[in-house]
Amino acid sequence: MQFKSISRRLLTNVLSVYFLLTFIVTCGQIVAEYLNTKNLINDELAMLQKTFSGSLTRAIWELNTQQALTIAEGLLAIPMIEGVVVRGDNADVLTQIGKIIDVKEKYSNQLVQDGVILEDRGSGLFGYTFPLIFEFSGRATQVGDVTLFSSREVVFNRIMVSILFLIGNAIVKTTFLIVLFLIAFRRLLTDPLNDITQQISELELDNLEGAQINIHTKDNNELKIMEQAFNNVLKKVEGYKDDLQDTQKQLVVTNEKLDQQNLTLEQDVARKTSNLSRVMIDLQQQKNELEKQQSTLQDEIERRSNTEKELLAKQSELQKIVDDLNVAQDRLVQSEKLAAIGGLVAGITHEVNTPVGIGVTATSFLQERLKQLQIAFDEKKLSAKAFEAFITEANQSVDLLTTNLNRASELIASFKQIAVDQASEAVRTININGYIDEIIRSLHPKLKKTNHQIHVNCPESLLIKCPAGAISQIFTNLIINSVIHGFEGVQSGTINIDVTDEGDDVHIVYSDNGHGLDEEQLEQLFDPFFTTKREQGGSGLGTHITYNLVKQTLGGDIEISSKKGEGLTYDMRFPKETRTDDDVFGEAANPDL
Question: Who contacts 455 (Cβ-Cβ below 8 Å, separation ≥6)?
């Protein structure tokens, strides 16, 4: 067998572990330096938003593509920027220069609402996207977004000196440690072990008296203990030799007694073999009876197997029926959402026709008065009093036009936002107080024919990030249910909406003073297709959709309470910020966040 030195193997293992740890630590430091520098570049890209967003936003608002291109080229001249993509309000690319990632594929042809970090590990590019918001007359409008790109080459160029310093430091420490270990292992382990080996090899087993080993070392260590233990073993071996001779004499006497015991044992075995033969006959009879019972049991198992196959076939048919019912339910839920949007369209159309009709009438009147003024001016019959009367009537017509057109514009803006949100599951940041007002305004055509009152108690600056369509659908369903079911036959009902900021959560209590529900109806309220207006065309999906939106889409909880004649209360709680795929992607791209 090939000789293997323990000290050399131990030294090799220790140095291997040290090399591995040094390599891992050095790589960790390089990765940390890389990530810190990358995060710093991301922060610098984000800071550029404050520097260039104003001028770039105005250039896009004024449709000045050449100015936008000039600004993009100026950004590209910054050393850390490798590429620039500028998109307009329709998510179409206005300018893209340098090294870029396809932002259409990343954002699905949608503009970003907040700053977003993106990365392509294949090409090594990473970037920061921020929206371009233009404020005009107190209204903020997003006119596009900008994506600034950098690359891992920029990061490596910044940290190259640090990497070289880390590698050189690791090489110097490793070289010093190798030399130190070689000297220490040779003096403390290799030389003493060689001394022990030589003394042991010179021992004679036939002459152990006075034979002891001696290690030349001043330290009282493991080798010294091994020397003492080995010398004690030699003493014990010498004593065991005498004991062995006495044991051999006793063994001869014991063998004689063992022969006598073997003879007695053979006689007992013969007697017990006879008894065992009788037992085997009895066991054979019992085996025959068990085989008959096994045959009967196999028939029973086959019969039950056939029954099980029939049950599985029935189960498969039932599962197909359940799947068909689930598909039908999903279609009904989608139809319910489209029906709600259709109701909004019909109501808002009727509501917009009124101010538009007034505006047409005012325009016709103003046009007629202009013709009369022109005729009087041409015939030189225009008097100061007639002109003053025309100015008064014109101002009144203009005021009437402005008021009604503003009203129509507000109705259309509210309807557009609510309708788009209900048809979309996009996540965006909203002011929940203002958004609830827009929802109520969009339902005005259904509420104006009644004397019902809606009171909203909500912090004015409370912002949440969630699928806005879910909020719109929830309050639309609840308000319509209160009007149709809760206030049936009631001339003047009251709806209270209380919104509370609870740190990371939003707490909403919706209540009305309508007819309420009994315990049996309350238990079925969230069940699909449960309605008290089946004969009047009710689908029974409004509260079911509301329940799913709160529990699944918003990730919250909803509870109901009611007594007959005392109204109905919904208690909802959900997180302020709904997690999206972009959030997960951002965390994966930046693990230090």
Answer: 494, 495, 496, 497
Query: pTM for the whole thing?
Result: 0.36
Tell me if 355 sits within 8 A of 404, measured CB to CB. Answer: yes
Give CA–CA dist 243/238, Å, rounded. 9
Written as one letter, the residue type at 440 is I
115 and 128 in contact (C-beta within 8 Å)?
yes
- Token pair of 473 as six digits: 């659908």
Measured N-to-C along each axis, helices 432-442 and 468-481 cross at an angle, to the nearest 10 degrees, of 50
Question: 171-187 pLDDT, tens per residue?
Answer: 888 888 778 777 777 77
pLDDT, mean of residues 341-353: 55
Instruction: Report how far residue 549's alpha carbon sits from residue 336's, in angstroms, rounded to the nearest whole number.
Output: 14
Burial of 375 (C-beta count, 10 Å sphere; 0-12/13-18/19+): exposed
Q: From CA 322, how far away is CA 220, in angstroms rounded?
A: 82
Q: Is pLDDT above 60 for 537?
A: no
Output the furthest CA–CA distance in the chain (Å, rounded). 162
Owner of token pair 């030399």: 179
- Paired tokens of 465: 């990030």
What is the four-CA torsion angle of 401, 407, 409, 410, rounded to 10 degrees? 160
Alpha-carbon Rg for the chain in angstroms: 46
Please say whether the beta carbons of 148 and 51 come within 8 A. no
Q: How many angstroms separate the CA atoms of 428 and 576, rounded?
A: 11
What the chain holds in terms of domains, given with CATH numbers, is 6-177 (3.30.450.20), 424-587 (3.30.565.10)
